[in-house]
Design brief:
The protein has 221 residues and is mainly α. The protein has one domain. It is 82% helix and 0% strand. Helix 1 crosses helix 6, helix 3 packs antiparallel against helix 9 and helix 7 packs across helix 8. The protein is elongated, with a radius of gyration of 18 Å.
Length: 221
C-alpha cells in the first residue's frame, strides 16, 4: 500500500508541476461550453433543453486531451520498466496512475461544472445531479481511457488512434450521465441513470486495470 500511495503521489505531483496539462483540459472545457450558445443561439429554452448534453460532451472531450500522457512519460524515461520489475502488481500500479489522473483532470471538471451550468441556463435544481453524475462518470473516462492509452503506447499518431478507440466506449457514460441531469431537470428523477452510471464505474474499476496491464506488457515486449 505504501508503494501504491507513493506512485499515486508521484504522478499527482508531476501533474500539478506540469500544470499546463490541467489548464489545457479546463480551458478546453470552458471554451467548448462557452462556444455552444454562439452556435445554437442564445435562446434560453433551446440552451436549457440541451444543457446536460453540452456539459457532458464538453467534459468527455476535455478528459480525452490528457489521456495520451497517462503512460507516455514513464514509457519514454524507463519508468514503466521499473514499475514492471517492482513487487507491486502492474494492475494495481495502473489503478494508482488512473486515480492520480482523475484527481488531476476529472475532479477539476466536476468542481468547475456548476459555474458553466449557468452559461447554458441549466436548471439550478439539476446542478447537484450534474456534479454527482460527473463524480460517478469521470472515473470511467480515466479507467477506460487507460486501456486505450496502453494499447496505443509507442504507436505513431497515438492521439488519433487513442481517440478512435476510446470515443465509442465513452458513449454509455455520456448517455446515462446526460440522462440523469435531464431527468433531474424535468422532475422525473435521476436515480435509475445514476445507478447505472455507478455500475459502469464499478465494472470499469474491476476490468480496466487488468486490460491496461495486459496492453502495457505487450508494449514493453
Amino acid at each position: 500500500m505504501a508503494a501504491l500511495f507513493g506512485l499515486f503521489r508521484r504522478d499527482l505531483r508531476l501533474a500539478l508541476r506540469q500544470s499546463g496539462d490541467t489548464a489545457l483540459v479546463l480551458g478546453f472545457f470552458v471554451l467548448t461550453v462557452v462556444l455552444f450558445p454562439f452556435g445554437v443561439g442564445p435562446e434560453p429554452e433551446i440552451l436549457r433543453r440541451i444543457a446536460a448534453g453540452i456539459l457532458w460532451v464538453a467534459a468527455l472531450l476535455a478528459a480525452l486531451l490528457s489521456l495520451d500522457r497517462l503512460f507516455q512519460t514513464d514509457y519514454e524515461d524507463g519508468g514503466l520498466d521499473l514499475i514492471m520489475l517492482s513487487p507491486v502488481p502492474l494492475e494495481l500500479a495502473v489503478l494508482a496512475k488512473c486515480a492520480a489522473h482523475w484527481v488531476a483532470t476529472g475532479l477539476p471538471l466536476v468542481l468547475l461544472s456548476p459555474i458553466l451550468a449557468f452559461i447554458v441556463d441549466l436548471d439550478p435544481g439539476a446542478i447537484p445531479t450534474l456534479m454527482v453524475s460527473l463524480m460517478a462518470g469521470t472515473p470511467v473516462l480515466s479507467l477506460v481511457g487507460s486501456v486505450a492509452a496502453a494499447l496505443t503506447l509507442g504507436a505513431r499518431r497515438q492521439g488519433v488512434l487513442l481517440s478512435l478507440l476510446v470515443l465509442p466506449l465513452y458513449v454509455p457514460p455520456l448517455v446515462f450521465g446526460a440522462g440523469a441531469v435531464e431527468a433531474s431537470a424535468t422532475g422525473t428523477g435521476p436515480r435509475a441513470d445514476l445507478l447505472i452510471l455507478a455500475a459502469l464505474s464499478l465494472a470499469a474499476l474491476a476490468l480496466c486495470p487488468w486490460a491496461s496491464a495486459a496492453g502495457l506488457r505487450l508494449a514493453l515486449e
